[in-house]
Amino acid sequence: MRDTIYDNTYLEGNKGNLTKLPIILCAVGGIVLGGIVFRLANGKVNIPINFEHITRKSEATIESSDNIKEFVFKLFGIDMYNPITILNTNYPYFKMFYDKNYQPYVAEKVQKELSATEKSQTKPVQQPQASIPQKPSEPAGGQLKEASSSITFEGDVEEKDQKNNPVVSSGKINITNETGFKINIKKLLNEPLKLAPDKKGPKILIYHTHTTESFLKSASELGKSNIPSRTTNNKYNVVRVGDALINNLKKYSIDVLHNTTIHDSDYNSSYVKSLNTLTSYVDKYPSLKMTIDLHRDAASEGKLRPVKKINGKNFAEIMFVIGTDAKLNNPKWRENLKLAIQVQARLNEICPGIAKPIYVSKNRYNQHLVNGSVIVEIGGDGNVIDECIRSTSYLAEALNDVIFRKK
């Protein structure tokens, strides 16, 4: 496209007509533009204006030749037989408007829209049950609000109230059933386990989806407020209890792995991260008969301290949590429940009262990879760490008796 407005070559042979320019501009421009403005202002299109008559009248008045019209267009760089020259003529004005006015306006508008979009995308997600620091640590003061249970976070966040779910019982076996699935305890208790066949390699994996869940350091902290419920100090969190369980399992010559990766720096993505860890172990060790995601429980308000006194000593209570396929595919959940029922039955025999009802959840909790996948919760955030360590001796005995003892 051309960048010039006027083509001066048209003026050279028409200098004699330049004296008529004001009359032409006034007659043609005034009448034509005035009619256009009037129409636009009133929104009407039915006002009859005979431009041909006006042109003939103007030409008669100024006694111009038939090429006056063509001269006027050429004067402004327009070829009346080539409409593209209209845009060509006005290109510099369009460019000036874009460079000086429109471009800054558009840039400002786009920036505002981008800022609004980024703000909406980075708005913090509401966490109705827990407020966890990005990097878990001992807070300087103030008690972190805990979920009612450490099992309540997987994918979409929803609150569970274990007290309002029905309890299924058979003998001394109790199950809190959050789902609508029918559970035949007696049948599962007597069926053989379908765990991985005997292969050389580790038999049990212990890991922690909520690695920073902590306990009281000593009995002196009982009843005190502002006691942290999370810590990266492995002397006082679930990692320490995992170590104790491994030591007790080794007494039965059971080969055990322990992963201590922190998966809950971002609490709501804990199960996504721990699934990656679990998958890597399952792929590497086909010998695994059981995977234990070791947690501790917590209350929505205050501290939870499920404890059983045995021979004058306090032992933290133990609860199995079994995920189902109510939300996500999990074809192994009944085999996992079968193992939990049989271990609970053995716990009831060797240490009556230490086992809490098994909790059957709508969530899956990464228990879909292998048979024998369970969550084990030992104690709560109100238990002293020593109480939880003591309980691992009974759990190790029950696991050995159910999984490895020759029947």
Strand content: 5-15%
Q: Which segments are poorly predicted (pLDDT under 50) over 5 or more consecutive residues? A: 1-21, 43-47, 117-149, 153-161
Count of individual domains: 2
In DSSP terms (H or I, runs of 4 or more residues), the helix count works out at 10
Q: Look at the structure and name the CATH superfamily of the largest domain.
A: Zn-dependent exopeptidases
> How many DSSP-defined strands?
12
What's the main sheet like?
8 strands, mixed
Distance between the termini: 94 Å
- Basic shape: elongated
Provide the spatial order of strands within the biggest beta sheet.
3-4-11-10-12-7-5-6
- Structural class per helix/strand content? alpha/beta
Question: At the third CATH level, what is the topology name of the largest domain?
Answer: Aminopeptidase
Main CATH class of the largest domain: Alpha Beta
Give the radius of gyration: 41 Å
Overall average pLDDT: 76
CATH architecture assignment name of the largest domain: 3-Layer(aba) Sandwich
Spell the H/E element sequence: HHHHHEEEEHEHEHEEEEHEEH
Organism: Ruminiclostridium cellulolyticum (strain ATCC 35319 / DSM 5812 / JCM 6584 / H10) (Clostridium cellulolyticum)
Transmembrane segments: 21-41
Region (Disordered): 117-171
Biased composition (Polar residues): 117-134
